[in-house]
Recover the amino acids of this structure.
């Protein structure tokens, strides 16, 4: 079993590792702190080459952890990280982030968890409202909560039925804000990292335009204290 925690201090991970001690053949920590609580609780450690810094959003640490897990599951693979990042910088302007409404991120397959990640970055960096939803589920119920002040971002990668292309035009015609982010290349690893980089860059650029000198959550002391109690 693999337990991922950059800080090595996440209480739920440490508790889970302790609970399966007599069950798991091997417990492996994926962490940036080889001497942390999680590392001491597990049987072996995969070290993430990242200098853990407090009160920063998970961008580099997330990308490195994702890469480590991909290599664990699939072994060696090639990925044009430079190309994915360059395309993400160009595509970041296509991402709509609502000022007063909800920023929706829709995607299928491997794009869906990236949608959740994108929404989390909006929460942490901007203090905005956001939600990651599976693309084919959006039309069943979430669409009825859609408001004109919201934005709908559709990740086109892994959308074999072209649901995004079918969804965006009627939304625009009805007066809603919607855009489809086209996939990068044909390699699934590159498509995933393109979306990860895209999510990070879009939120970062908005934070700069808002004049933020640090992530929103770092200044939200009341909620940050509650968050720390829940995590650690």
């Amino acid at each position: 079993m693999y337990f991922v925690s950059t800080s090595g201090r996440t209480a739920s991970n440490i508790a889970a590792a302790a609970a399966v001690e007599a069950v798991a053949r091997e417990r492996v920590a994926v962490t940036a702190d080889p001497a942390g609580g999680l590392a001491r609780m597990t049987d072996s450690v995969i070290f993430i080459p990242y200098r853990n810094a407090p009160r920063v959003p998970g961008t580099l640490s997330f990308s490195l952890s994702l890469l480590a897990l991909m290599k664990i599951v699939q072994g060696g693979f090639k990925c044009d990280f430079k190309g994915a990042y360059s395309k993400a910088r160009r595509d970041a302007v296509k991402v709509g982030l609502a000022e007063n409404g909800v920023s929706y991120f829709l995607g299928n397959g491997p794009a869906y968890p990236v949608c959740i990640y994108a929404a989390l970055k909006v929460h942490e960096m901007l203090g905005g409202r956001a939600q990651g939803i599976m693309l084919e589920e959006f039309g069943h119920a979430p669409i009825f909560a859609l408001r004109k002040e919201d934005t709908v971002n559709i990740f086109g990668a892994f959308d074999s039925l072209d649901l995004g292309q079918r969804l965006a035009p009627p939304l625009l015609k009805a007066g809603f804000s919607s855009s489809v982010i086209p996939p990068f290349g044909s390699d699934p690893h590159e498509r995933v990292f393109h979306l990860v980089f895209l999510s990070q860059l879009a939120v970062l650029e908005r934070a700069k335009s808002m004049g933020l000198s640090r992530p929103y959550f770092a200044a939200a002391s009341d909620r940050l204290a509650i968050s720390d109690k829940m995590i650690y």
Notes: The CA atoms of residues 21 and 106 lie 38 Å apart. The chain has two domains: 2-76, 81-209. The domain at 2-76 is CATH 3.40.50.10490 (Rossmann fold). Residues 188-209 form the longest helix (22 residues).
